Amino acid sequence: MENKNFQVVGQITPRKDGVARVTGQEKYTVDMTLPRMLYGRTVCSPYAHARIKSIDTSAAEAMGAVVLTFKDIPPIRYNERIITVEWALHKDHYILADKVRRMGEPVVAVAAETEALAEKAARAVKVEYEPLPVLIDPREAMKPGAAPLYDTVMYGDKEIKIENNIACTRDVIEGDVDKAFAESDVFVEGTFKTHKIYHAQMEPKSVLCRPEPDGGITVWATTQSIHNTRIVLGQIFDIPLSKINVKRMAVGGTFGSSIQMNSVVPIGVALALKARRPVRLTLTREEDMHDHGRFGTDAHIKIGAKKDGTLTGVEMEMIADLGAHIIQGYSFLGVSIGWVVSLYRLPNVRYKGVGVYTNKAPGCAMQGYGNPQATLAIESLLDELAEKLGIDPLQLRLKNYVGLGMTFWGQGPMVRSIVWSDGVPELLGKGQEIIGWDKRESPDTKSGRFRRGIGLGRGFHTTSAGAPQPGDVIDFSGALVKVNQDGSVDVVTAMVDHGGGTWEAIAKLVAETLCVPLDKVNVVPSDTFSTVYDVCTHATRGTYAGGGAAVKVAEQVKKEIFETAAHYLNVQPDALKLRMDHEQGQAVIYVPSIPDRKMTLKQLASRTWSESWKTIAAVDSYRPTNCPPAYVTIFLEIEVDTWTGAVRTLQTALGVDCGTVVNPDGAVGQLEGGLSRGLGMALYEDNEWNDQGQLLSKGYWVDAKTPGIMESPALKDLNTHFADTYEPTGPLGAKGIGEAALNPVPAAYANAIYNAIGIRFYELPITPEKILGALMEQENMVKEGVH
Amino acid sequence: MKPQMITLHINGRTHYVALNPNLTLLVALRDLGYTDVKSGCEKGDCGACAVFLNGVAVNSCLVLAAQADEGEILTAAGLGTSEHPHPLQTAFSDAGAIQCGYCTPGMIISAKALLDHKPHPTDAEIRDAISGNLCRCTGYAQIIQAVQSAAEKMDAGGEG
Q1: Are the beta carbons of A710 and B127 separated by less than 8 Å?
Q2: ipTM score of complex
């Protein structure tokens, strides 16, 4: 039922962990130390593709270091990301490399008394390599005769052969594309290329492991999922999960890079188990840049339409550059077509996705998980189609978008649900007004050095991977909510907050449900021992699924409060209500019709403690059966300097439909951060490799071109806005924001640049060099009279 | 390599430390428990480890600990406490200028270095002062706003 008279939800409140973060008191994994702790280091391969001929660790051992090589680790191949169910899971990874498949791959691990000694020991290890041909381009890697990265990998519990470095393929056919195309009047098509870029999360990935006397292990780790980390560790080390405790930590941003168990985690565990002492292992920034990146894509897409702009079908072929290991390639192939058919109604679909191994950093989800890549293609093609048909691009979108009551694919073909809330027309209308869309002029009216353009990108992200039926993606959360003896409330959840304010949102939702003032509701520190399962903070699901679980459990607690209070107040439980009393700083349980029958939650909890001997508490799991789209529309006005090729962002209108806005200031921050990362992806970020698989940035962060403060538009020019919607399946009407905030940004830049200079770019990043090159070509064509 | 004795005055406390001459100030500070000094890249790229050394903001990963011998060091934790945060710390927390918080201590040091010399900075001056600090979460707009609002508050209250 829609109720927007909230007392806590939607209010701007000081962030609970704010003081800890601004004074530097917040502890991240890399800040943790233990008595008698050893420091770990890895010996990383200087080659991108090589056989390991021999390893000599004697010098390192002579220094007193604990040393691990391939022969010391459990001979188990695993996939570090187990959000995908077992039957659809490829496993090609050992704790330490059996063979080197990317630069910087850990081959040997050491642990020693000091960081300096560990470094010295690592350098003393001698590894003899036999270099193999390096494959950087997936198209080259797929050619028959190309050097194979793998002979076999595990798929579920079966060993499968890998041919032509093709790790996985996925075909999706819906309706009849040939018939749809035969009945179409007009087509648009293009080959869109996106690159592998670096997540650039601020916190270096780290792990601290303490072996326990009972044979178990305690693990502090940079991760987005404490339970999945524990499960994979249990599988690799054959330790009962009841003896593995993974602590939930503050995380210094992830953007998807810690969805999977990080490579340092099992190495740290193996070192600690061997040393019988605590070990901390942290990746250097350079090692981290070799450890993961966004999936690169190369996709040919063709869309058919009728004269009136009705879309008829889509044909898409995509090659995904998986890098040296398959972390989530099969799912990636599925979601990529899902993003396409969920943006616009494309009833007829023919899709082939191919995931290819290359000697580069393994691709893993990075904000959007293929969605910004797909959205770039579709939003570019929609603009081309609008131009061909002489229709306003905004109207073409309104005519075809997947909205209220329609089916969409939240996460690939197996995760489908219905749209129950839809703020798209509102978002487009507001953005249109803010940016001055109607004054937008065509590119051929523009001349001079500085040319301005207005562009639109619209998109969405799935909020969770919830669906009515089980699919290939696991999605559920859980929570424990308990009322303390003073009427305050503990929320115990495994859900990780990677920085966006998920814990704040969960606390607000519980405070609202139980009418307890926000300062008395806390999301408390937790670990795998004290929590029920939560799959992962990914898929824009923190507030929706983690918050959904907390609200579901808080409702059970509320029932228990009423049933218990009913005895003390001598009334029917159903007659009771809750309200927030700010003067007393308490929830008050009362009967509207009998004013003197009331008690505070503190009075109730105190009596249940001393008289009834019970804690009012509940614990449960929550499986979302929907994955509502969080819609975002991005309007940009940019200026292209035709002398330098530089693109400057002048004004934006960033709109989101996230249902009920739980943390308004946090939500604005999500939109602005999404713009910044999208701007980087669109215009310059690159983590390029040379033909030998070496990073051109050499591990220097600035050379990977993470956006800095100079490129950031001013706050007054950003114009963030929210659609007024209520998601009936969400906790108090909320959906997510997260990934949606980035997804349409690169497309909006591509469209704005086209509107400025009349040149369409199909490959990211759209660097000044590319813009200048294209402008020169355009000029030459004009000179030669070619059109 | 022989350890060397050095003296560091950190946030008003004096530490006598024996350490190898090749260790950075960042490592020395963190080993002494000053984990409010964040380690982001150890190459001077990100600014997360910024501290004041004798009144000048430096990336502590680019300074050898031995160079800081007898130096006065101020870190984000020395700037304010939970009970009495520095106006910049309050402004960062209130303006939504923090998300994951990992870059925040270094950002605040850079911002204080600016306000120490320019109590009324322009937008361009703020950007220039923060240009050595990376933040991946926020997109910077709210960071600029936080610095502006702290400057206004400090001006009105004579703090800082």
Answers
A1: yes
A2: 0.96
Fold match flag (A32-132+202-253+258-291 vs A389-468+626-783): no
B20 and B70 in one domain? yes
Residue A521, pLDDT > 90, answer yes
* Sequence-ordered alpha helix ranges (H) in B54-159: 76-79, 87-94, 104-117, 123-130, 141-157
Q: Does B93 touch chain A (CB under 8 A)?
A: yes
Per-chain mean pLDDT for chain A: 96
**Residue-level pLDDT at A787:** 53
Number of domains in chain B: 2
Nearest-by-CA chain A residue for B35: A31
What's the CATH code of the domain at B14? 3.10.20.30
Q: Indicate if B58 and B126 belong to the same structural domain.
A: no
CB A522, CB A507: distance < 8 Å: yes
Mean pLDDT, residues A494-499:
96
Using the beta-carbon criterion (under 8 Å), do B137 and A499 form an inter-chain contact?
yes
Which CATH number does the domain housing residue B137 bear?
1.10.150.120
> Of the candidates B78, B112, B128, which is a domain's last residue?
B78
Nearest CB neighbour to A18, from listed B20, B98, B136: B98
Are B143 and A709 inside 8 Å of each other by CB? yes
A201 and chain B in contact, CB less than 8 A:
yes
B145 touches chain A (CB under 8 A): yes
Query: Of A204, A251, A676, which has the smallest distance from its Cβ to B100's Cβ?
Result: A251
A contact residues 647-686, partner B, Cβ 8 Å cutoff: 665-666, 668-669, 672-677
The per-residue pLDDT for range A123-136, each reduced to its tens digit, is 999 999 999 999 99
Segments in chain B below pLDDT 70: 158-160
Distance from the Cα of A485 to chain B's closest Cα (Å) equals 26
Contact check, Cβ <8 Å, A24/B35: yes
Looking at the predicted structure, is the pLDDT value of residue A644 above 50? yes
Which of A709, A710, A742 to substitute to test the interface with B, most B CBs within 10 Å?
A709
Give the span between the Cα atoms of A219 and B85, in whole angstroms. 32
User: Is the pLDDT score of A766 beyond 90?
Assistant: yes
Location of structure tokens 């390029």: A688
**Option in B46, B85, B108 nearest A701 (CB):** B46
Quickly state the pLDDT bin for A415 (edges 50, 70, 90).
Answer: confident
> Looking at the structure, do residues B139 and B93 belong to the same domain, yes or no?
yes
Residue with structure tokens 């044979």?
Answer: A215
Report the percent of chain A where pLDDT is more than 70.
Answer: 99
Q: What amino acid is encoded at A637 in this protein?
A: E
Q: What is the pTM of this model?
A: 0.97
Give the distance from CA A108 to its chain's centroid.
30
Report how far residue A197's alpha carbon sits from residue A292's, in angstroms, rounded to the nearest whole number.
Answer: 9
In angstroms, rounded to a whole number, what is the distance separating the alpha carbons of residues A702 and A689? 15
* Shortest alpha-carbon distance between residue A537 and chain B (Å): 14
Query: Is the Cα dihedral B147, B149, B152, B155 positive or negative?
Result: negative
In a shared domain, residues B37 and B90: no
CATH topology of domain A389-468+626-783: Aldehyde Oxidoreductase; domain 4 (3.30.365)
Contact in structure between A452 and A637 (CB atoms under 8 Å):
yes
Which of B10, B137, B142, B145 is the best substitution to test chain A (most A C-beta atoms within 10 A)? B137
Domain ranges, residue B14: 4-78
Q: Hey, where are the domains in chain A?
A: 18-25+476-622, 32-132+202-253+258-291, 389-468+626-783
**How would residue A1 be classed by pLDDT, with cut points 50, 70 and 90?**
very low
Q: Which residue of A has its CA nearest to B24?
A: A116
pLDDT band at A2 (very low <50, low <70, confident <90, very high): low
Domain A32-132+202-253+258-291 in CATH 3.40.47.10? The answer is no
CATH of A18-25+476-622, one of 3.30.365.10, 3.40.50.1820, 1.10.10.200, 3.30.450.20: 3.30.365.10
Residue A4 burial (CB count, 10 A): 11
**Amino acid in position B14:** T
- The reply to whether B74 and B85 lie within a common domain is no
Radius of gyration in angstroms for the set of CA atoms belonging to chain A, rounded to a whole number: 27
Tell me what the mean pLDDT of segment A388-403 comes to: 98
Instruction: Report the residue from B41, B93, B130 with minimal CB separation from A22.
Output: B93
Cα distance between residue A67 and residue A296, in whole Å: 35
